[in-house]
Amino acid sequence: MDDRKEWYLEYELTVNRPGLLGDISSLLGMLSINIISINGVDDKKRGLLLLVKSEEQIGRLESILQTMETIKVTKIREPKLRDKLAVRHGRYIQRDHDDRKTFRFVRDDLGILVDFMAELFKREGHKLIGIRGMPRVGKTESIVAASVCANKKWIFVSSTMIKQTVRSQLIDDEYSLNNIFILDGVVSTERANEQHWQLVREIMQLPAVKVVEHPDIFVQYSEYSLDDFDYIIELREDPAQEITYDLLQRNRMFQGGFGGFDY
Q: I need a surface site. Which of 37, 65, 102, 157 has the fewest CB within 10 A?
């Protein structure tokens, strides 16, 4: 039985000299620590995913690295999902400093976004994920792509992906806990009846993954709150784009619905 554990090492270059990575690789080899993967992370940092037999090896490694004047260790810990993705993609996912469950992406990040969601989808049990973004930014497509990567079947409970979908019931095999349940908060709020909302309540009780597009609208007109969400994802065309629902609110106030919003 292999009882080795993964560890994440990240260090910042204080002196970028040739052969430094080779020196560190040789050190890891002498300590019988295997390198799973390695990549540059952000600007002058390098991240390594390691396979370690004991914490004693990590303690010895950390002690030696602290004596090296050419690097500064910034992280040495059991890897989090963000660490693994940082090594895989060469940079960290942006995370809100005030709301730690909110993660930010732009359209150029769709590859890492899909990878991030796929890793979340692979985890068993209840998970409620909200995704914010303006129309046609790639929200639904990213959810579907992540479902494919996670080898999960996706179920549209409400959506405008191909045609407007508002489900009021599921067939037996669609209740599988291995499925990804996708809701559009605007469609559910604007087009749905009580039978649909009863189905939503049933799905929310399942120990499975649920993804809600436009979560702010969803919680505004339902019994759920943003506190119920485990993760909030924001997707923008560029970092400066504002995600706003002003047009939706005006339509609801003056026209009695969201019909004028091209979602």
A: 37
